[in-house]
Design a protein that fits this description.
The chain is mainly α and 146 residues long. The chain has one domain. Helices cover 88% and strands 0% of the residues.
Length: 146
């Protein structure tokens, strides 16, 4: 009976470790969403201000992305993934280049369909936010996320 309870104890320890790991990842995702809301509001605010000043949606998207990258790097890296490593800035920026490229393609397509620039950018946000999370969690901050 002791042998069996010892085995059960081992399984229980493994189960507890798995649950803790899952909870850490869940907590990290919740943090990403929270910080992502702040980052998104910041980026969309920059986009809207630039668009209202210039009436040029493509330029506004570029400016919002460039200004938002550093803000997002520090908030996402530090608050979500626990990283202060400046070495992650290069991959982080490259991830944003990919996201910006997709953003511009989708923005042009939606403008071509007659959707207003502010609404189009708001509709594109869920796609770019999801892509940013995947790039950051699986590439940029991968070693810190797992």
């Amino acid at each position: 009976m002791t042998e069996r309870s010892g085995s059960l104890g081992s399984w229980a320890r493994v189960a507890v470790r798995l649950i803790r790991r899952h909870m850490r990842r869940h907590a990290q995702f919740i943090k990403f969403i929270q910080i992502g809301i702040v980052n998104t509001m910041f980026g969309y605010g920059i986009f809207a201000l630039c668009f209202l000043a210039t009436r040029w949606p493509q330029l506004s998207a570029v400016v919002a992305t460039v200004v938002g990258v550093l803000f997002n790097f520090f908030t996402t890296g530090r608050l979500v993934f626990g990283s202060r490593a400046m070495s992650a800035l290069g991959p982080f920026v490259l991830g944003y280049v990919v996201t910006l490229s997709l953003n511009l393609v989708l923005l042009d397509a939606m403008l071509g369909l007659g959707v207003g620039a502010l609404l189009a950018q708001a509709l594109i946000l869920p796609i770019t936010v999801t892509l940013n999370y995947l790039v950051n969690s699986r590439i940029v901050f991968r070693t810190r996320a797992n």
